[in-house]
Amino acid sequence: MTSKKYAALLRGINVGGSKKVPMADLRQVLEGLGHGDVQTYLQSGNAVFSSTQQDPVALARALEGAIESRFGFPVACLVADGARLRAVADDCPFPAAELEGRQLHVTFLSEQPDPSRFSAIDAPSYLPEEFRIGDRVLYLYAPNGLGRSKLAEALYRPAVLKGIDATTRNWNTVAKLVALTNDTP
Fold first, then answer.
1. Predicted structure pTM score
2. Which of 115, 119, 107 has its CA nearest to residue 165?
């Protein structure tokens, strides 16, 4: 069976001293699951690996189980192959090439949200910040960065994303993960 490159996106690790997952240990966990070409990117829970497994959801569940066994706490994981990451980048509704990486964010979602979840958000009141719903992603333009974004606070409220695993990456990280999972030589 042909091997494929994937990115694993872990939610909420190594933030504020909680849920510590050293990247060397994460690489060991992925290798222990039988994956090859394992590498990590930054300390915020991004890993790239190759696998013959073709089901990203099954890969994510296996990684979640292995992380909980190794570290003793649950961590939501989303896994995407290179083609999916490329599609997310290509479908960006904002002019990514014209923006700083800290201004544009992608929130990866475990499932497609019903647009009605966002109906209570008065988007014009947050301008110049904007968001768009994509295919199992939210794109967020926050010109002053995510940390100062009032729209991000509204989008990421539990009532809006209840029952959906979500993890956010800035555009620089998305672009790097696209490059790292590119299967073409």
1. 0.93
2. 107
